[in-house]
Amino acid sequence: MPENLGAFIGQIFIVVLLIVVAIFVIVVIFRSVRIIPQAYAGIVERLGRYQRTLQPGLNLLVPFIDRLRPLVDMREQVVSFPPQPVITEDNLVVSIDTVVYFQVTDARAATYEIANYLSAVEQLTTTTLRNVVGGLNLEEALTSRDNINGQLRVVLDEATGKWGLRVSRVELKAIDPPHSIQDSMEKQMRAERDRRAVILTAEGSKQSQILEAEGRRQAEILRAEGDKAAAVLRAQGEAEAIETVFNAIHIGNPDDKLLAYQYLQTLPKIAESPSSKLWIVPSEFTKALSGIGEAFAGRLGADPAARPPRTPRPASAAHSVADDLIAQAHQAASAAGAIASEATAGLSAGLAEPDVEPTDGR
């Protein structure tokens, strides 16, 4: 029995030893193999001293000697810092929010050169922002964001270079002046907009009046040009009519009898005006009557052979003129008789309207 008991205890001891060895091997393997994700870096310390930087992928360590520190994110990071009160050059307190874009370029420096690089970047951004904005007034701070961003980025990049960081951009997210200043700015902008609106309205009214005046001017010019062209055409028409009448008279070669008849036809037109109160009978009126009488007497009783010779005319023109003269002579005879009777009755009655006074033609 004791021999069996010793053999059993020996077997149990061997089994436990094998289990311990297996666990030790597993732990050693687990601590020796490290897998680093992409865009991360690992700092390895051997016996408390920096040994190397692990790159993404499978890495082997010496167990119980090498120690892996927390992984460092190598990607570009965006950090938004809370609003910071900043005093401008004109003694106004404004609240400014900033956003910093930075990236870790050296994992060793970011681990050993600075205890907490996020807090360091925040504090450095705040102090630099106060230095930059403190030299500007409110108007310049509101309109010079690009200039402020550039100055902040240069200062931060220089200061964080030894920490293994690279600052790519710094943006001012918001600049909030005091509420009283905001109200004043709103009133100022409202007044400026009203002024611009009034100026634009005045400019529009001015342009409208100018265009209307130009339109009226062009209309008057066109109307004057139309009147001018109409007057020229009217004058040309009258000139052509006068020339046509003049040529017709010379072609017809009228004698004294025809002219006397035309003179008698013109006399009634003198008295057609409603404002004519006095009708003056010229002395040529009796001569015209006597000429017409002689013409009829000579045309009816005289011998055709005893008539004085006249200038020969073309056959067609002579016949037409002769026919016209005969017709006009008959009309002149009847008109002359009517005018003579009216003139005689007027003289005998002694009427005042129209008054008939013989004159010598002057």
Helix and strand layout, with pairings?
Blueprint: H1 2-32, E1 33-36, E2 40-46, E3 49-54, E4 57-60, E5 66-68, E6 72-73, E7 76-87, E8 93-104, H2 107-112, H3 117-133, H4 138-143, H5 145-160, E9 165-176, H6 179-252, H7 256-270, E10 278-281, H8 284-301, H9 315-349, E11 355-358
Parallel strand pairs: 10-11
Antiparallel strand pairs: 1-4, 2-3, 2-5, 2-6, 7-8, 8-9
Helix pairs in contact: 3-5, 7-8, 7-9, 8-9
Figure out the total of helices: 9
* Spans where pLDDT lies below 50 across 5 or more residues: 299-319, 346-362
Structural class: alpha+beta
Q: Can you count the beta strands?
A: 11
- The H/E string reads HEEEEEEEEHHHHEHHEHHE
Would you mind describing this structure in some detail?
This protein has 362 residues and is α+β, with helices and mostly antiparallel strands. The protein has 9 helices and 11 strands. It has helices at 2-32, 107-112, 117-133, 138-143, 145-160, 179-252, 256-270, 284-301, 315-349, and strands spanning 33-36, 40-46, 49-54, 57-60, 66-68, 72-73, 76-87, 93-104, 165-176, 278-281, 355-358. Strands 2, 3, 5 and 6 form a 4-stranded antiparallel beta sheet that branches. It has a 3-stranded antiparallel beta sheet with strand order 7-8-9. Strands 1-4 form a two-stranded antiparallel ribbon. The protein starts with a helix and ends with a strand. Mean pLDDT is 77; it is low at 299-319 and 346-362.
